[in-house]
């Protein structure tokens, strides 16, 4: 029942099924009939309409309530606002260009930042049970300018042979390499080989 | 109330509905236009009444409302629900002290 009402209201918003004039005519007839009633009750013709209006309410308020019920007011307001915005933007092309460029830059920068954050922080690592993965590093407490994260091969072999907390330990070496493509070359940083401790998830 | 009025009177215009409700309730129910017409519109949107322009007995153009089959079903169901509620309240309020 309710969905039928909403469909009807949507339809009425798109294709005005009852015009303002139609609604107003109905209210005016109501007021006239009420005024007739007042005259029948013996009120003078000059004050019958005023008394009737006091009794049945004003046309303007009733019109407003009918308009609210007729369609989807927020959709009508949205369409009106969009039309107004388009007219205003057409009148000031300079402002429109600046606004569109600003928005484009803002959206582009946000997308790029989200892309990085999504890849680095949000997306799980491509291994089964990524929450069980941990990075192990040696930290040089004597270092003054920050601790190094790398470990020596002998340290790694010692850790692997005596590890009880981890199921597996695997090492990777980060290195710089040069990619040569048709358009030119670029330098990248990354692991020289993929860690082999865990199977990659599909 | 509107559906019941339309069942009793047949197709009538908004003013007749308001007048009938006022008369039957001895003046206790007074619907002004801002309440009556949005309500009629809602009933029409829900398919419970159908409105059509016609002419009154004193030759005025007015919109006449008639109850639909769906309206009759809704009225029967609302009446049953109301009677059940009223019966529960009656039993509760007249419980022996």
3D structure, described in words:
The complex is a heterodimer of chains A (202) and B (97). With 202 residues, chain A is mostly helical. Chain A has three domains: 2-91, no CATH class; 93-123; 127-138 and 147-202, no CATH class. Chain A contains seven helices and two strands. Chain A has helices spanning 2-14, 20-40, 45-56, 59-70, 73-91, 93-122, 153-162; strands at 174-181, 184-191. In chain A, strands 1-2 form a two-stranded antiparallel sheet. The longest helix of chain A is centred in the middle third of the chain and has 30 residues, at 93-122. The two termini of chain A are 48 Å apart. The model of chain A is unreliable at 198-202 (pLDDT under 50). Chain B has 97 residues and is of the alpha+beta class. Helices cover 59% and strands 16% of the residues of chain B. Chain B has helices at residues 2-9, 14-24, 33-45, 69-93; strands at 12-13, 49-55, 61-67. A three-stranded antiparallel β-sheet of chain B has the order 1-3-2. In chain B, strand 2 (49-55) and strand 3 (61-67) form a beta hairpin. The longest helix of chain B is centred in the last third of the chain and has 25 residues, at 69-93. The termini of chain B are far apart. The relative contact order of chain B is 0.16. The model of chain B has no long low-confidence stretch (mean pLDDT 91). Chains A and B meet through helix 1, helix 2 and helix 4 of A and helix 2, helix 3 and strand 3 of B.
The number of distinct structural domains of chain A comes to: 3
Largest sheet of chain A: 2 strands, antiparallel
Q: List the uncertain runs of chain A.
A: 198-202
Report, as a whole number of angstroms, the end-to-end distance of chain A.
48 Å
Strand line-up of the largest beta sheet of chain B: 1-3-2
Approximately how much beta-strand content do the residues of chain B carry? 15-25%
Number of domains of chain B: 1
- The overall strand count of chain A is 2
